[in-house]
Structures are given as C-alpha cells and as structure tokens.
Amino acid sequence: MLINNLLVLKKILFGLAVGWTLLIAFLCLVPLNKLPSFGVSGTDKYVHAILHFVFTFFWGSYFSVKQNEIRMPKILRVVMLSIFYGIMIEILQGAFTTKRHSDILDVLANLSGTLLALVLFILIKMNKLNQP
Description:
The protein is mainly alpha-helical. It has one domain (2-25, 43-130). The protein is 80% helix and 0% strand. The chain has 4 helices and no strands. It has helices at 2-29, 43-67, 72-96, 104-130.
C-alpha cells in the first residue's frame, strides 16, 4: 500500500514539475498584451522569484520522493537545472520574441527564488535528521 501511494505521489509531482516547467516557458515566451498592473515597482521580479521557487520545489520534491529522502547532490542538480533553465529562457526571450527582452535582473530574481527553495530543502533535511 505504501509503495502504491509513493508511486501515485511520484507521478503527481512529476506532472506538477513538468507542467510548471511548461508554464514558465509559456509565461516568459508568449507575448501577453494585457497583463494586469499592480502599481508596485519590480513586480515582475517577484513573479520570476516565485516561478523558480516553485520550479525548484516541485522538481526537488519529485526527486526526494523518488529517493525516499532529500539528498543534497540531487537538490543541487535541481538548483543548477533551475539556474540553467532561467538563463535559457532569458536568452530565448532576447532571440525569439519582439515584445520581450533579456534581463539580467530577471536571472537574478530567478536565482533568488531557486536559492530560497534550496534553503527550504536544507531546513527540511535538518529537521528530518533531528527527529528520533
């Protein structure tokens, strides 16, 4: 029963991770003409950070369930994947879109979200180690 539950959870997390990855590509590469304005400077940077926080969290969670624990080399690979993906999206924005442009500050916002997710995974791992 536990194995079946883990397999179902693994499939759900994989679907969420792939779906979120595709959502990032869509939101960053498709011109969206009528986006709401929140009147807060740098709102898009918060969005970038949240997108990559969730990206890292979903993929890290998927690999955690796959291994039945959070392993630092796996989560560091996920962090590297998130950084690479964010840079790749920015390059694609500059090369293939007319309404959007590459922005190093977007890459830094992506990185901040990724690092926050890494800190969360480290805290979870430390908490699991301290439990009897």
